[in-house]
Amino acid sequence: MAKEYSGSPKHHHRLEAKRNPLTWILGVSFLCILFYVLGAWQRSSNPNTTQFSAYNRGGCDSHVTTSDNGNAVVGHPSSTNLDFASHHQVVLNSSKTVSQFPSCDMSFSEYTPCQDKVRGRKFDRNMLKYRERHCPAKEELLRCLIPAPPQYKTPFKWPQSRDYAWYSNIPHRELSIEKAIQNWIQLEGNRFRFPGGGTMFPRGADAYIDDIGRLIPLTDGTIRTAIDTGCGVASFGAYLLNRNILTMSFAPRDTHEAQVQFALERGVPAMIGIMGSQRLPYSARAFDLAHCSRCLIPWQKYDGLYLAEVDRILRPGGYWVLSGPPIHWKKFWRGWERTREDLKQEQDAIEDVAKSLCWKKVIEKNDLSVWQKPINHVECFRSKKVLKAPHMCESDDPDTAWYRNLEACVTPLPEVSSSDDVAGGAIEKWPERAYAVPPRIRSGSTPGITAERFVEDNKLWKERVAHYKRIISPLPTGRYRNIMDMNAYLGGFAAAMLNYPVWVMNVVPINSNHDTLGVIYERGLIGTYQDWCEAFSTYPRTYDLIHASGLFTLYQNRCDITYILLEMDRILRPEGTVIFRDTVELLVKIQSITDGMRWKSQIMDHESGPFNPEKILVAVKTYWTGEATQKQL
C-alpha cells in the first residue's frame, strides 16, 4: 500500500494548523469583534438623526424639523426607535391605556400651591407668617394640569423680554395703574412695557445702579451674586445683568399681584419669598451684595432679626445697600408723609443693629446708604465681650435654611489665622471664579468632594451640554432663557451653560447626600434649597427648560413621583423642554406618566453610546390653553 506523499497540500495544511493554532484563534476572534462592533454601530443613534426639538403647536412630525418660529418638533425616525423591553427587562404592558390627566379649572391658572392665598388666611399674621410657605396636605394635592390663559403666546426672546411681555400671558393691569407714576410697568396695546423704573429710581434702574457704582465696585468682577429683597418687577436685577451681576430677586405673593411672575416673564431670576419668621432658603455666605429699595421690611424690629438674616447670607466683605425711608430723612421727610422724629428713630435703630453685627458704614449719599460686612470676626469676637447683644449663634450649621426659624444672633464666620484673612477663604473675581476651585472644596469643608472631583465634574458637564446642543436644536438660539436644574450638585450644568443667553436656577434638594449650595454660590452662580415632595416657590409657566439628572433615583422612594412631574408641568411653559437623566426603568415609568400630561417624549442613548445603563429622556410640553371664562370674554 502506497504511502501518502508527505509533501501533499492536505498534509501540509494539517501540519501548519497544528503548528499555528494561535493564528486561527486570533483570526476568528478578530472577525467576531469586527462584526459585533459593526452591528452595534449600525444600531446606535446618529446624533444628526436623533435631533430633538420642542413640540410645534401644529402637531408632531415624523421627521426632525424646526418650525418657523424657532420651536422644535419631536423627531421619531424609525432608526431611533429604542426598544428597551427586550434588552433591559423592563416590563411594558402594551395593552394598558395611558392615564390622561384632565385640565384644572381656569381659576387655578396662576395657582401657587405653597403660597395659596386662601390657605394662607388660616395662619398667624404676626411677622407675616401667613405669607410664608404653607403647602397643601396630601389629600389636597391636585391631579390635574394647570391651564395657560387663553391666547397665551411664547414670551419675547431675551434681551427683548427684559422690556416687553404679552398681556395675554399675565392679564393683570393693577401694577400698571398703581405704579404708573413710578414707571414700574406700562400697558401698551396687547403687551406690557417695562421702562426700568422703580419706587426709588424714577430716572430708571440703569441710572440708579450707576449711582451705586460710584460708591462700591460693581464692574470689576468683585461683586457677582446679589439678592434683592422686595424686588417689585425686578428691574434692579434686570439691569445688573449688564454688569455681569446675577441677582436673586424675591417678593411675596401679596397685593402687588404677580410681581414675581412679571420678573420671570421678563427672563430675570426671581422667586416668591418673604422676610417673615423663617430663614431664607439660601446657604450662608452666599451673596456679595444685598439690596433693599423701599422694600418695607422693618429692619429695626424684633431685635434686628431681619438684618441678622441678611448677615448670615452675606459673604465676608459683602455690601448691604439701603435706599428710601429712613435714609437721609432730614431732606426727604416731607415727601414720605412721616414725622421727623419717627424717621430719626428708625434710622438710629438700624444703625445700632448694623453696628451690633460688626458692620462698617461705608457711606451715606443722597437717599443711598451702604454698609459692609467684615471679612472675618476677629475684631467682632473682641467687641462681643463688651457688647453682649446680639450674641453669637450657637447653631452647628449656618447653612441649614429649610423651614428653619430665624434667630436674633450673629452667625459666626469660619475661623482665620490672621485678621487679614477672609473667613472661609478668598474667591476669584468673575469670570474666573466660575471654574476656580471653590474655597469650601479647597478647605475640605464639603465632605466627600475634592478638587479633582470638582474638575472632573466640570469636564463631564461640558461634554454633556455639547451633546444637548446636538439633540436640542434651539439651545443656542435664544429659544430658552429661564432654566432650572432640579438636582444641581456642584453647578456643573449651569457653568457649562454660561456661553448661552440663559440663566440657571440651581436647586439643591434637601435630601441630597451633599449640601453643595454654598459651593454653587462661591462659583458665582445662584440657586436655592428645595424639597421636591413639595411645590416650588414660583408661578406657573415660568421656566423654558428643566433639567433633572438623577432626581428620580433620589425621590422614587420618598414620595409619589407623579406629583413631582405634575409640579414640573405647572412651572414649565407651553412648548418648554425637559431633560431627564436616569436609569431606563425609571425613564420608562416617567414616560408612561408624562404621556398622559400632553407631553411628547423620546428616550435616547447616553452621550457615551448605547452600552451605558443611564439613558436620556427628552420631553416637550405641548401647546394648549384653558378656555376663556365668561369674565374674560
Automatic annotation (TrEMBL):
This is Methyltransferase. Its EC number is 2.1.1.-. Keywords: Glycoprotein, Membrane, Methyltransferase, Signal-anchor, Transferase, Transmembrane, Transmembrane helix. Belongs to the methyltransferase superfamily. Signal peptide: none annotated. GO terms for biological process: methylation. The chain crosses the membrane at residues 21-41. The keyword Amino-acid biosynthesis does not apply. One of its GO terms (cellular component) is endosome. The keyword Hydrolase does not apply. One of its GO terms (molecular function) is methyltransferase activity. It is found in: Endoplasmic reticulum membrane; Membrane. InterPro entries: Put_SAM_MeTrfase, SAM-dependent_MTases_sf. It is a single-pass type II membrane protein. It holds the Pfam family Methyltransf_29.
